[in-house]
Amino acid sequence: MTGDDERKLPVFLTTIEVAKMLHYEPRTLEKWRLEGRGPRYFRIGVSGKAKVVYRLSDLEDWLEGFRQ
């Protein structure tokens, strides 16, 4: 892809990367997912082998909700 047809790919972060950014333990993000809280995420793959990733733009949107 080149020129005007080129689109910027979304940036995805792992649970560990997001936890480090937010200064929380990865387990906290896992708990938030179970409780339906926290930033939106994608579960890619099947069952026990699925990988959870967060789109950076979703994380930024979620954080904006806390701005005062």
Written description of the protein model:
It is a single chain. By secondary structure, the chain is of the alpha+beta class. It has a single domain (10-64), classed as Arc Repressor Mutant, subunit A, CATH 1.10.10. The chain has three helices and three strands; from the N terminus they run βααββα. It has a three-stranded antiparallel β-sheet. Strand 2 and strand 3 (51-55) form a beta hairpin. Helix 1 (15-22) packs across helix 2. The longest helix is centred in the middle third of the chain and has 10 residues, at 26-35. The radius of gyration is 14 Å and the shape is globular. The N and C termini lie far apart (41 Å). The relative contact order is 0.20.
Short overview:
With 68 residues, this protein is an alpha+beta fold.
